[in-house]
Write a structure and sequence with these properties.
Elements lengths: L3 E4 L6 H12 L4 E5 L6 H5 L3 E3 L5 H10 L4 E4 L5 H6 L1 H22 L2 E7 L10 E3 L10 H20 L3 E6 L1 E3 L12 H10 L4 E3 L7 E5 H13 L11 E2 L3 E3 L1 H11 L5 E3 L3 H8 L4 E2 L2 H7 L7 H19 L1
Parallel strand pairs: 1-2, 1-4, 2-3, 4-5, 5-7, 6-14, 7-11, 8-10, 9-13
Antiparallel strand pairs: 10-12
Bound molecules: 2-amino-3-ketobutyric acid.
Length: 319
């Protein structure tokens, strides 16, 4: 039986990963750890919750000992646009946080999941069918922490035998928790506007094509990778994975099929546009498919339908 610690548990990925892990491995075996933010009562009531500082090795070690943790999903990080606003803080949280957790994993023999990103690529990377192994010269601080993170995870695997594994997530679309501070956040915000019958002003320009994925696929990918037999993994840190690739206008058209009255205009944010322009349009995820059987379930149509249905319920519950 796995005993799991999830850092960044109250964030966009963590708030959906924790309940799935608790269903699968048992509530008491999954410790959710967040930084200050007070989570929903439902989240605390469903299993152990602890407040941590991701760069404080002693307190994380103490948690790992207390709960006899053997696997860490290390999700605590600043997203791309937030990281550009405060690069020093982003380095501290994303890099020093990862190194701290890798050290804890080394001393306590834990496996570790690290979420890399399309942000690990840069303007000189081939943008179409971006290969698994290719040029990685990102020009954002976020991207630099993601490439360095991939390399550090590989280093800890080779030097200290830490079972570190990771994926390069595309933009993630979800209805439970807003992302906050990312470049792909438009693809989440647009649904909130649509279900509230409000117009949406998109901060990326028409034609900006990026890889995307619906959260249930992302959660399944993380768990399947961590469950995979170590002997079949070659590209551990980190695998390209994608589910769909679209532009804001294509997402708008897909939502309009469901909600014909919805309207969208563009008000481009130069910071986030520049970040998006440096990222791939569509990654080649054949290594993940071949090595551990990665297969997405949702495409743009099925994701759009499900998002609208689920978000309508969420929005009507809070109003
Ligand atoms: C962001 O936009 O910063 C993230 C990512 C693609 O890594 N969603």
């Amino acid at each position: 039986m796995k005993r799991i610690l999830v850092t960044g548990a109250t964030g966009q990925i963590g708030s959906e990963l924790v309940p799935v892990l608790r269903d699968k491995y048992g509530s008491d075996n999954v410790v959710a750890a967040g930084h200050r933010r007070k989570p929903e009562d439902e989240f605390i009531d469903s299993g152990p919750y602890e407040t941590i500082e991701t760069t404080d090795a002693e307190s994380i070690s103490a948690l790992v000992k207390k709960y006899r943790i053997d696997t860490i999903y290390h999700l605590a990080a600043l997203l791309s646009a937030k990281a550009e606003e405060n690069p020093q803080l982003a380095w501290h949280i994303n890099m020093n946080g990862l190194q701290t957790v890798l050290e804890v994993a080394r001393h306590h023999h834990c496996a570790l999941f690290f979420p890399s990103s399309i942000g690990a690529f840069g303007p000189s990377t081939p943008p179409d069918n971006t290969p698994q192994v290719t040029l990685q010269r990102p020009n954002t601080l976020y991207g630099i922490t993601k490439v360095a993170g991939e390399l550090l995870c590989d280093y800890y695997f080779k030097k200290y035998d830490v079972d570190a594994r990771g994926v390069r997530f595309p933009g993630l679309i979800s209805y439970k928790t807003l992302p906050g501070g990312g470049t792909t956040d438009y693809a989440v915000e647009i649904f909130y506007a649509a279900v509230k019958n409000e117009p949406y002003r998109c901060f990326l320009k028409e034609g900006t094509r990026l890889d995307m994925m619906y959260m249930p696929d992302a959660i399944r990918a993380a768990i399947e990778l961590m469950e995979a037999d170590a002997r079949i993994l070659t590209h551990r840190n980190a695998y390209n994975i994608t589910a769909m690739s679209f532009t804001p206008d294509q997402l708008y058209a897909s939502i309009k099929k469901e909600l014909p009255g919805f309207s969208m205009t563009y008000e481009v944010d130069p910071l986030r546009q520049a970040i998006a322009d440096s990222w791939p349009h569509k990654m080649d995820d054949s290594a993940a498919r071949a090595e551990w059987g990665w297969q997405p379930e949702y495409d743009i149509e099925s994701m759009t339908k499900d998002m609208i249905e689920k978000l309508r319920k969420e929005v009507s519950n809070v109003t």
